[in-house]
Amino acid sequence: MHELGIVFYIIRDVKKAAQENGVEKVSAVVMNIGEVSTIIPEYLTDCWRWAADKEDMLRGCELKINIIPAVTHCDGCGCEYETVPNGKKCPSCGSESTWLLRGNEVEIKEIEV
Q: What is the pTM of this model?
């Protein structure tokens, strides 16, 4: 379960941003998580609750997750399509000359105080 390691990095970054801005208590952290990022949101939330409650600044802090749909771009025809149902092969032209445009993100979007 790599989600716990990710949570430790999130906590580190949130605490640093809060301290740099004179914030003593964080009420929520909003994450953008890509659909194909390999992160399981439920595991991330469970790990967050366990780890955040050990930090005074984050005790009771909510983790909000936005799922970013995976979209692939086809170099063959320029089509952008949903990655998960179609995979690497373009549904418009059949080309496999494709690349992931978005959907692999793991980023802190907002810190609410």
A: 0.89
- Residue among 43, 31, 50 nearest 1 (CA): 43
Q: What pLDDT, in 10s, does the model give residues 3-25?
A: 999 999 999 999 999 999 999 99
d(CA 85, CA 39): 18
CA 89 to chain centre: 25
The residue assigned the tokens 């009771």 is 60
CB 79 within 8 A of CB 41: no
Token pair of 103 as six digits: 């959907």
When pLDDT is cut at 50, 70 and 90, the band that residue 91 belongs to is very high
In this structure, are residues 5 and 92 in contact, taking their beta carbons and an 8 Å threshold?
no
What is the CA 77 to chain-centroid distance, rounded?
A: 29
CA 103, chain centre distance (Å): 9
Q: Find all residues with CB under 8 Å of 57, minimum gap 6, and list them.
A: 15, 18, 23, 24, 25, 26
